[in-house]
Amino acid sequence: MTAMNKVLLATAVTSMLASSLTFAAPKEAPPDFVKRISDQMIAQLKQNKGQLQNPAVINKLVSQNIEPYVDEQGFSRLVMGQYYSNQYTTAAQRGQFTKNFRDSIIKTYAKGLAQYSNEGYTLRPYRDTGSQYPVVMMDFKATNGNKIPVGFQLVDKNNEWKIRNINVSGIDLALTFRDQFKSTVQQNGGNIDKAIASFKPDADVAKK
C-alpha cells in the first residue's frame, strides 16, 4: 500500500468513526429530556392526585417515572467518594450500597411527591458548553409562590440521558450525601458494612 493510500484509508476510517460517534449520541437535547420526564411526572401526579397518600400508588409512580432516568451507579460513585475503590470496598459492598442508596432516595422522592399540590416549573435558557455532564436548570414554583432553583446534571449512558446529580438551591446533593456517608463511616469506626447498612441520606438539607 502506498503512502497516499494509507492516508486515504486513515481519513476514511476517521470519518466513519466520527460519523458513528455522532450517530451514537442521545437524540434528545438535554433540556428536551428534562422537560419530557418532568411533564410526564406532573401528568401522572395530576392523574393520581386523589391517591398520592397511598404508598403503593406513589411508589409505582416513582418506579415508572424516576428510577429509569437516574444513573444509580454513577450517583452512588459520587456519594461514596473515596470509598468507591478497591482500596476500601469490594464490588459486593459497592453493589449493596447502590441498592440501599437507591431505596433511600426512592422513599425521599415518594415522600416529596405525595405532597404534590399543582406546583409547576419553568426551564431556564440552556447553554450548550460541550461538557461531558451537561446541566439543565429549572425553577420549581413552591406552594408559597417562591421559586426553587434545581439543576439536573446529566450523563450519556448507552445513548440515553440519565440524571447523574442534582443541585437544589445551590446545594450539591451528591457532595452533601458524600459528607454524610463519610461521617457515617467514621461513626461506625470505619466498619464499611455497618456504615452501608445504616446510611440514610438526608435530602432535607436542601430546604435549610
From TrEMBL:
Pfam families: MlaC. Residues 1-24 form the signal peptide. Keywords: Signal. The keyword Signal applies. PANTHER family: INTERMEMBRANE PHOSPHOLIPID TRANSPORT SYSTEM BINDING PROTEIN MLAC. This is Toluene tolerance protein. It comes from Acinetobacter populi. The lineage of its organism: Bacteria, Pseudomonadati, Pseudomonadota, Gammaproteobacteria, Moraxellales.
